Amino acid sequence: MFHYTPKSASWLNAVEGFFAKLSKRRLKRGVFRSLVDLQAAIKRFLAETNDNPKPFIWTADPDKIITAVRRGYQALDSIH
Description:
Layout: H1 12-27, H2 35-51, H3 62-79
């Protein structure tokens, strides 16, 4: 089943932040001589991150999210 996920979905911010941190701290200036080396670097990053986890604290206002979703539905309805 197909599910449309807008690029601006607020819950993606945590995922985007995680991948940005991975890229900046482990991959950006790294030199990987093979796919195995790259995978090992990613696994090390995951292990280090999991050794000292920090919870994601949601700061978005749910009412604003619901309002934005309703505006999105109205925009889609006006197109069809």
